[in-house]
Amino acid sequence: VWIFGYGSLVWRPGFEFTSSKVGFIRGYSRRFWQGDTFHRGSERMPGRVVTLLEDCGACTWGVAYEVRGEQIAASLKYLNMREAVLGGYDTKLVKFHPQEKDGGEPILALVYIATPQNPSYLGPASEEDIAAQIIVSSGCAGHNIEYLLRLAHFMRYFCPQAEDKHLFSIEEALISILPCLYYTEDSLEET
C-alpha cells in the first residue's frame, strides 16, 4: 500500500514504512483551508493546516510512502486517528507520479483530504489572514509557524521545479508580519 502525504507527512510521517518517493498527484491544489484544534492549534485558537481542493489543471507535490506487511495495519490505524478522527479528513485513492525520471507507471496511493463538510473546515481566506492566524496558533505538535515553514522548505528543497503560489504567498505574508510583532528596547524608547 502506498500513502501520499502533502502536509506534515512530508517531514514527519509518524509510522514505519518500507520506502518513500517524492512526486505529485494531478487534479488537486494544496490549500491552508483546514482548521486544526489539536496538532497545530487549540479550541480557542485553531491553527491552519493544508487540505486538497479538486482543481483539474493543478498538481500537488509531496511524498508517497510504501507500507508492507505488518506496517499496513499499524500505519492505517495511526493515520485514521491522526487524520480522520482528529483532523476530519476522508480518504481517496489517487494516481501518484514519482519525481525520478525512471519512476515508471503512476502508483495508486491513499490520500487524506479534508472536505468542506467536516466541522473543522475553515475554507478560503486572504493570504494575510491565513498568515495572521498561523502566527498565533500552537498545538500539541508545535507552533503553526513551524508547519508552514517546514512545508515551504520541503517544496524548495525537494521540488524546486514546482510552484505552489498559495503556500509561498502565505509564507511571504507571514514573514512580512513577523517584524511588526518584534520590539526591541530601542524601538520602544523611540515611541
Automatic annotation (TrEMBL):
Domain of life: Eukaryota
GO molecular function annotations of the record: gamma-glutamylcyclotransferase activity; glutathione specific gamma-glutamylcyclotransferase activity; transferase activity
Catalytic activity, reaction form: glutathione = L-cysteinylglycine + 5-oxo-L-proline
The protein, known as: Gamma-glutamylcyclotransferase
CDD domains: GGCT_like (cd06661)
Job description of the protein: Catalyzes the cleavage of glutathione into 5-oxo-L-proline and a Cys-Gly dipeptide. Acts specifically on glutathione, but not on other gamma-glutamyl peptides. Glutathione depletion is an important factor for apoptosis initiation and execution. Acts as a pro-apoptotic component of the unfolded protein response pathway by mediating the pro-apoptotic effects of the ATF4-ATF3-DDIT3/CHOP cascade.
EC numbers, comma separated: 4.3.2.7
Record localization: Cytoplasm, Cytosol; Golgi apparatus, trans-Golgi network
Family indicated by similarity: Belongs to the gamma-glutamylcyclotransferase family. ChaC subfamily.
The keyword Cell membrane belongs to this UniProt entry's keyword annotation: no
GO biological process, one term: nervous system development
GO CC entries: cytosol; Golgi apparatus
Gene this chain is encoded by: Chac1
Keywords in alphabetical order: Apoptosis, Cytoplasm, Golgi apparatus, Lyase, Neurogenesis, Notch signaling pathway, Transferase, Unfolded protein response
